[in-house]
Write a structure and sequence with these properties.
There is one protein chain. Helices cover 22% and strands 18% of the residues. It is of the alpha+beta class. The protein folds into two domains: 85 residues, no CATH class; 90 residues, no CATH class. The strands form four sheets. The protein has a three-stranded antiparallel beta sheet, with no helix packed on it. The protein has a two-stranded antiparallel ribbon with strand order 1-2. Helix 2 packs antiparallel against helix 3.
Length: 194
């Protein structure tokens, strides 16, 4: 649910200047671009709106017709449509990404011990150093994606808007253990196609 005030969306073409606080139910990521009214701008005098959302006149303020009261400012639906268009673009991007991933031929590597479940690791001990090393000999379908390739661009389209990345590793049919890669700077992201 999002809450807006009609007065904040009155750009001079709306039939009334009343606050008319309104709830908009949506399952999108849209957030209203304009803040709620604090009764401190052009349509208010003495901490009160000069107009109100009622049919009959009251306290010297004019009433409105039902059509005027039911009118919706243009900007909120437009904002909501733009947010929905961005979501649809992400969905299209996810479909494109899945097509790229399904057509990719993965080449296995075998030194990815940090993502292999503990039960599948082979354990080697160095008695001289009294150290224990977990290394897997299982081949992992893992692929480092090169920048400026179609697959890289497809991932970039579905990534969060503020995401910055310089390396992408795709692992196919691998259950990863929680791990940290030594060269990470900041948080890692994960995209799991179904």
């Amino acid at each position: 649910m999002r809450v807006i005030d009609y007065c904040k969306y009155n750009d001079g073409d709306h039939p009334h200047k009343a606050r008319k606080r309104t709830c908009i139910w949506t399952n999108t990521a849209w957030t209203p671009a304009r803040a709620l009214c604090k009764k401190n701008f052009g349509f208010c005098e003495g901490n009160k709106h000069t107009d109100y959302a009622q049919m009959g006149p009251r306290n010297g303020r004019l009433g409105h017709s039902l059509g005027q009261l039911h009118a919706i400012p243009e900007a909120p639906p437009q904002e909501l449509c733009e947010a929905s268009a961005r979501i649809l673009e992400k969905w299209r991007g996810q479909d494109e990404l899945l097509q790229h991933l399904r057509s990719r031929k993965f080449t296995g590597t075998h030194l990815r011990a940090n993502i292999v479940p503990e039960s599948e690791r082979a354990v080697y001990t160095n008695p001289a150093k009294k150290t224990r090393l977990n290394v897997t000999r299982k081949r992992i379908d893992s692929y480092m994606i090169k920048p400026n390739t179609p697959l890289w661009e497809a991932i970039a389209r579905v990534a969060p808007e503020n995401a910055e990345f310089n390396a992408i590793c795709a692992n196919k049919n691998v259950k990863c253990e929680p791990h940290v890669d030594k060269n990470n700077k900041g948080n890692s992201g994960m995209f799991v196609p179904r």
